[in-house]
Amino acid sequence: MNDFKNKKNILMIAGIALAVVVVAAILFLVGPGSKSGGQHAGDSNKSLTRSDVPEGIKVPEMGEEVGKGVAAPEAVASASVTGNNKYRIFSIAADKNAFSPDTIIANVGDVVHINFTAVDKTYDLTIPDYGMKQIVHKGETKVLEFQTVNAGKFMFYCDLCGGLNSEVKGYVIATK
After folding, report:
1. Dihedrals φ, ψ of 173, to 5°?
2. Is 114 domain-assigned?
3. Residue 82 clears pLDDT 90, i.e. is over it
4. Does the residue 31 lie in any domain?
């Protein structure tokens, strides 16, 4: 009877281990930031929300003039002792069905910290290539934070406002 119980326990543990491996493999292939069946921010294939970095993009530093719609960093600090990566703080407000500013520019490897505020109603800020979504109710501010890992122009949008078809969208541009 004990041999039967031990074999049953071993089979049960092996089954659980196999299930964990299968789930991990599926998550690896599909990925949390994937809307297109396995596309990650580092993939060279284009997605609906990722495109190449436009020509002539310059990463703004604190206190520099920025173009219309471009977020000026509120703070810039070294993100590591050994590298050139920076920690950049930005603020984005959602008001009257628009993000303002609607573009963030950083270097590849920088840590981007976004203070996201909903002014007139509930909005969300969804960045599918980074697997992020933050819902913010009227009058609230919440934080999104991530490291830019590959060069590209990554779209973000308000899923509650219509998603990719919405006018409520913007971009994170990560340049080398």
Report:
1. -110, 120
2. yes
3. no
4. no
